[in-house]
C-alpha cells in the first residue's frame, strides 16, 4: 500500500475527477429512472380514473408524483447504510437534494409557506422539499391553508410549535375548520442572528423581530442591548426586509434572510436555549401512505363529563402506543369547552391504530383525523 508521502495532489485530483464523472453519470441515470417512474404513475393514474369516476381527480393528481413516504424511506435507508466518513445527516441532505431535483423533472412542486422570503418557515420548506421546490410566500397562516385548499399550491408549510415558546395556536385553530391533511413534519434547529445592513453596526436604535424570536432571545438582548427599543413585526423575514432599508434598525432573523437582504450578522446563536427548535407541518390535500415510521395527528372534542379524557387516552396505554403530544384549545363553539390535539406514533392504516381511532370516534362528540405522515427524517 502506498504511504501518505507517495500520494501526490495531482493523482488525488485525477481520482476525484474520475469519481465525479461516475457520480455525474449515475445522477443522470437516476434522473432518467425518475422520469420513467413519472410515466408509469401517469399511466396507472389514468387507468384508475377510468374505473373510479366521481373521485376528486385534481386532488389525487397532487400525490401522483410526490411520495412523502417513499422519500422518508430513501432518507432512512441511506442513513442506515452509511459507513462514513461523511456523517449520516450529511449523506441524507445530499440525497434530499437529489430527490428534489428528480421530482422537479417529474413535476415541479409549488409550496406555500408563511413568508415573506427569508423566514424560518421558508428554510423549513427547503429542508423538507429540497432546493428544486418553487416556494411561494404567503402573509398569514390562514393564507397558506387557503392557497393549498384552492389547489393554487400543491403543499403548504406552517409552524406548529417551538421548543422555547410552545404551540403556535393559530395553526392548531386553522386545522379545526380545514379539510387539509398533515403530510409531513419538519424540525428546524433555529439559530437566531442579529442582522444589520453593511456598515450599520454603529448606531442601532431599534431591533425588529417576530415576537417569538424576541422572546427566544430575551436574556441575550437584556444583557447586550438593554436600552434599545424592541419592535415586534409580522415575521423575522419582514424584520430583515426593514433592516435592509431603514438605517439604525437591526433584525433578528435567519441566515437565509441575511443572504436574501444582503445583511451581515453582528452576532449569531443569540437564542437563550441552546437547542431552540421549531417544528413545522407540511399540509396537503391527500392522505399519505405508511412509510413504516409514522405519526398520526387527530383533533377530538370530548364529552364534558368526569373521566372523559382518561377514557379517551386509555386505549393508547392498553395497546402500548406512544403518545408524542397532547394539547388543548378552546372549542370556539361553546364557552369553557375544549378540543384536544393528540399526536401519536403509528399510521391510521395500521389495524391496531384503526381500532383505537374507531374506539375514540365512538366516545367523542367529534374526532377528526388530521393525517398520518412520516416522522421527520432529517
Ligand atoms: O419513487 C418514486 O415514486 C419517485 O418518484 C422517485 C423519487 C426519487 O427521486 O427517489 C422522486 C419523487 C418522489 O417523491 C419519491 C421518490
From TrEMBL:
Ranges for domain ACT:
297-374
**Where does it reside?**
Cytoplasm
Q: What is this protein called?
A: Bifunctional chorismate mutase/prephenate dehydratase
**UniProt keywords, alphabetically:** Amino-acid biosynthesis, Aromatic amino acid biosynthesis, Cytoplasm, Isomerase, Lyase, Multifunctional enzyme, Phenylalanine biosynthesis
For the Prephenate dehydratase domain, which residue ranges apply?
110-285
Pathway membership of this protein?
Answer: Metabolic intermediate biosynthesis; prephenate biosynthesis; prephenate from chorismate: step 1/1; Amino-acid biosynthesis; L-phenylalanine biosynthesis; phenylpyruvate from prephenate: step 1/1
Q: Which gene encodes it?
A: pheA
Checking NCBIfam families in the record gives: CM_P2, PRK11898.1
Organism annotation: Spongiibacter thalassae
User: Please, which domain of life does this record's source organism belong to?
Assistant: Bacteria
